[in-house]
Amino acid sequence: MASSIPYDPDDFDNNPFAEPQISILNNEANSPASSSQAPSTDSPNGPLNNSSIEQQNPPLASPSDQNEQQAQKAQNQTLDQPPGSKQPKLADNQQDNLKNRKSNLSLLPERRSKKYKIRLLITAIERVGRKDPIIKFDAYTNLPNFRGTSFKDIRRTHNELVKFFTYLNGANPECFVPAVPPSSTSSGIGSDENDVKVKQNLQEWFDRITSNPILIRNEEFIFFIESDFGYSPVNKGRPPATGLKRKTLKQLQPPYDEVTELAEFRPLIKQIYLNSQTLHHKLEKLSKARKTLGLYENELGNRIMELSSLEPTHPGMANMWQKFGKTIVVKGDIESVKATTEMASLGDGLNLIINDSYVIKEALTNRHLLMRELINAQANTKSKHAQAAKIRSRTEINPLKVDEALQQLTDATKFEEDLTIKIKRISGNMLIEKQQYLQHFDKSIKKYISEYTRKIIESERKTLAVFEKIRSDVRNVDENGGLSRLGREAYPRHKTVSVQSQGPEGDSWSGDRKTRAVVPGQNALQEDIKDFSKPNQVHRASTASTLDSEENTIDARNAASLLGGSTF
């Protein structure tokens, strides 16, 4: 069996036992019918799973053909340019990234069309005590292979949602599947805020998984929506390695990654995961400390109320001790509520970030494991090729050994090609979902911090309002405003009624000016110049009018407001 093509050990496509088929290859390459009969990438017949997608993908061209096609495209683009126009020059790494994204997008036919959609709307959440809640939702879809376009009153428990997520995460290694939110929040089971938060989180999770065109084409979505109560995944999807093998492989150095964005993305995700865990742990400790503080303040308030019995001759002091003790008890309750609010606003948000970042980190680890498996497959193919070449070099060739060597070489080459295409598909989709997750993370962390800040401000304002209620009781202990017991008997007596420091126009302690230095409609810069040009007139007039109006109400608060108004 002679071959007209010389044997090259580095060329894996050169089968040492096959006859050259140059004329057939040329005929197939030159025939226009072969390109016109290529199968469509997006099947209109139904949702696509991973196996169906790989079957519908057209065969990849060889590297030499791809280079020729790219050179021809570049030449055509150059000819289309007008003679005097300048072509924009890109950096080498940008050009490589652009080429990689275009080639990876050809392996993702689901993202070419936005025709098919699924919409899931939660209508209610049923909960009996601390049992697993039942989520009731409606589904609307235009995907084929469904029995209809709308499905009402679908019931799934939270545990069934976790099973569905576990399958999607294992069966779609190219996707960053969002983690399922917990069935309860830190607000406590049974509270209205807990039910609202759980419903919002689950609705957001439904929106995120249905916005992924790869996940909605999975066949398991049909069983998830159309099956009766008591859903369990029909198909099975597992990661490349589990258990002890996975732990062992994770200890090794990751293989070389030619996709720089994903190589830099995994350390970032791991840092987000670890920092979020640290913040959540410290917030838990702060919450426990606040609850302990609230208990101690309750005890302190009860002890202060007992001091009212020591003032039998002074009714004002007895009333003041009673009111002040009740205020400290209320402040302790506010601290306990604040501890719960901190965990419900920021703590639960950090917990969602921790779960999502862990899923993404493990997905990137699965990609590293597949890359390591590809390296082993390439080494296996090379060894099978060398073994076949060794058999060919013998003087006496056994046909059985030849067939066995050919079969092993064909299987090894096919496995390597499939694994290469799979890794390219995973890398291409992860590059797309990386940007989506970073945008979602930025939006979520801003929302959690904003909610946490608003809750803390509301709590502090409640504390100030509680102390505001007993201000008049403290001031009315005696004619000197309650300060005679502090050794300030010479303090002038009150002639005016004490005004509330909190009102609809703002707080007197906030330091914000309630008067405008610049008249609206005029140039601010010109007004500032006028003020600085006549400082004595403006400031003397404002100071004189203020002193005249509050001549008889000079106390610590008014002095601070005067200083703040004239200084800032």
Describe this protein with a few key phrases.
PX_dom, Substrate Binding Domain Of Dnak, Chain:A, Domain 2, two-stranded antiparallel ribbon, 568 residues, PX Domain, coiled coil, mainly alpha, elongated
Could you give the topology of this structure?
Blueprint: H1 22-30, H2 32-36, H3 50-56, H4 63-80, H5 92-105, E1 118-126, E2 134-141, E3 150-157, H6 158-171, H7 192-210, H8 213-216, H9 220-226, H10 243-251, H11 260-305, H12 315-392, H13 399-469, H14 471-475, E4 502-503, E5 506-507, H15 524-533, H16 535-549, H17 556-567
Antiparallel strand pairs: 1-2, 2-3, 4-5
Describe the protein.
- This is Vacuolar protein sorting-associated protein 17.
- Belongs to the VPS17 family.
- By secondary structure, this protein is mainly alpha-helical.
- The protein has helices at 22-30, 32-36, 50-56, 63-80, 92-105, 158-171, 192-210, 213-216, 220-226, 243-251, 260-305, 315-392, 399-469, 471-475, 524-533, 535-549, 556-567, and strands at residues 118-126, 134-141, 150-157, 502-503, 506-507.
- α5 (92-105) packs across α13.
